[in-house]
Design a protein that fits this description.
With 146 residues, the protein is an all-alpha fold. The chain is 66% helix and 0% strand. It folds into two domains: 6-71, no CATH class; 83-140.
Length: 146
């Protein structure tokens, strides 16, 4: 497309995907994705009319992104990522997050009782085992189309 280098189109497409992720968080703050989280972060204090206005604004925002992207030949949605890869990366980040909240890391916030440390270490072991089980299940999955 005239006036827009391929590398610029790719960068914009990636940025538009990020904007879409932020819009999904905005929808979550409106209660749209409330049931998908164990620890829901938001207390809804906006009147229904306000929530409706926000959600309508999100829809308009997305339409504008889509229209601009179509007009300038952006690869939207951005280049597809295999779900198997995304899941593997997410599982690695879960493992890192567990490590970052290890008992030794938590001790920097204050003293930890022995009973707590034992129970928390058992929780971490169980969660790491769950990550291992999920990882194994992903490795055993049949390839798409087979």
């Amino acid at each position: 497309m005239n006036g827009v280098e391929t590398s610029v189109r790719r960068a914009l497409a990636a940025h538009f995907v990020y904007l879409d992720e932020l819009l999904a968080k905005t929808q979550a703050a409106c209660g749209v994705a409330r049931t998908s989280r164990l620890f829901y972060r938001y207390e809804l204090d906006v009147p229904q009319a306000g929530l409706a206005a926000v959600l309508e604004g999100v829809a308009r925002f997305r339409r504008q992104l889509d229209t601009f992207g179509s007009r300038w030949g952006l690869d939207l949605p951005a280049e597809k990522v295999l779900s198997s890869h995304a899941l593997a990366v997410d599982l690695q980040f879960l493992d890192i997050a567990l490590e970052e909240m290890s008992p030794s890391s938590l001790s920097g916030y204050g003293p930890l009782g022995d009973d707590f440390v034992l129970d928390y270490e058992l929780l971490q072991q169980a969660l790491r085992a769950e990550i291992g089980t999920i990882t194994e299940a992903l490795a055993q999955r049949p390839r798409a189309g087979t």
